Amino acid sequence: MEITQPIMDKLDQLDEKFRDIDQKTETHLEGLLWSKPITYWDYINTDALLNLQIQRTTLPDEMVFIMYHQVNELLFKMVLWEVEQLCHTEAPSTDFFTEKLRRISRYFDMLTSSFTIMGEGMEVEQYLKFRNTLTPASGFQSAQYRLIEFASTDLINLIDYRYRTTIDRNTPYEHALEHLYWQAAGKDYHTGKKTYLIQQFEKKYKQEFLRYMEEYNTINIWRKFLQLPDESRNNKKLVDAMRHYDYTVNVTWVMGHYNTAKKYIESSMGPQEATGGSDWKKYMHPKYQRRIFFPELWTDEELRNWGENV
Question: Which of 120, 113, 127 is nearest to 66 (CA)?
Answer without folding.
Answer: 127
